[in-house]
Amino acid sequence: MNKVSDGREGAGPGPPSLEELAARVRDGDRSALEDLVARIQDRVYNLALRMLWHPEDARDATQEILIRVVTHLGTFRGESAFLTWVYRIAANYLLTARVGRLEAQRLTFERFGQDLDEGLSDLPLAPGPPIDEALLIEEVKIGCTLGMLSCMDRPHRLAYILGEILEIDGPEAARIMKIDTATFRKRL
Q1: For site-directed labelling of 49, which of 31, 64, 91, 143 has its Cα 20 to 30 A away?
Q2: Listed residue (20, 160, 4) closest to 85, CA to CA
């Protein structure tokens, strides 16, 4: 698995790291603030979307998380990568946020299995262009992953998203979740 990137887009000279941008923001550089937010907002949104599964809920959560990042920037001490710190703020928010639209449905593994059984049909497909079987298989995998994630409680869902979807290594993901590595592995 990959370690959380420091926000650089490759080796050598290039854009400043997230840590450098954060330092410039603390020194009052307004353009650095805009750059910093622009470089982290998609990552925060992607995490929020995977946790909440509804774009509007994810956008609202992203705004709240970004506000917390900006207002608490003075507390970043550089003990971890800046992105790890951002993900930690996001994780704290997402683990305690109000119940989202998908969670309100209270989907269980049993109910999901029943829905799958009911959705499967022996009826022939309607006439039309041929179906790309590989694309259909990929769509089923995505649907099953969504179903699995929506059945999990938030701590287990977050562990799966960090470790398997975002491919953050275990020790780093454990730091994000503020748990020990063995607990993270168990949740994963």
Answers
A1: 31
A2: 4
